[in-house]
What we know:
The protein has 188 residues and is α/β, with parallel strands linked by helices. It is built from 3 helices and 5 strands. Strand 1, helix 2 and strand 2 form a beta-alpha-beta unit. It starts with a helix and ends with a helix. Helix 2 (73-88) packs parallel to helix 3 (161-186). The chain folds into 2 domains: 1-40; 56-186, 2-Layer Sandwich (Double Stranded RNA Binding Domain), CATH 3.30.160.150.
Amino acid sequence: xxxxxxxxxxxxxxxxxxxxxxxxxxxxxxxxxxxxxxxxxxxxxxxxxxxxxxxxxxxxxxxxxxxxxxxxxxxxxxxxxxxxxxxxxxxxxxxxxxxxxxxxxxxxxxxxxxxxxxxxxxxxxxxxxxxxxxxxxxxxxxxxxxxxxxxxxxxxxxxxxxxxxxxxxxxxxxxxxxxxxxxxxxxx
Length: 188
């Protein structure tokens, strides 16, 4: 009787091994077939550019045209905007005659009291930045536009603007550059 049970156990183990082997072969075959027969393209950067017709971008430096000025703001903005396109597209940046063209100016940089404390003093200050952008697509002029992009950041009025300005301007610049990128090449 023990021999019969041992023999049945071996047959069960053999069948289990065979079933696992067959399942693995079927799984691997399906995976290979899926990857060899399908061509799926995902773009995680958000850009939807036809690189067969659009190869270059011309990005002019954006000067500051606002009444209130913080010196480093222009270079922070210009570098971030150029980096945005360099890091998230395959477009080649050129000095002139680009397939796409971006130009404009920083038109507003201001602060205002946002909220008042129980004592009647300013509790929060809001800093805002506005950039006017002119976009031209030399391959498809229906995409051309001129519009303004704005970002705001708040800070506690107990802090001086000098203490938080670089961080807040960097955050606003990032937000505005994302808005510009989405409006020009992401086609959401």
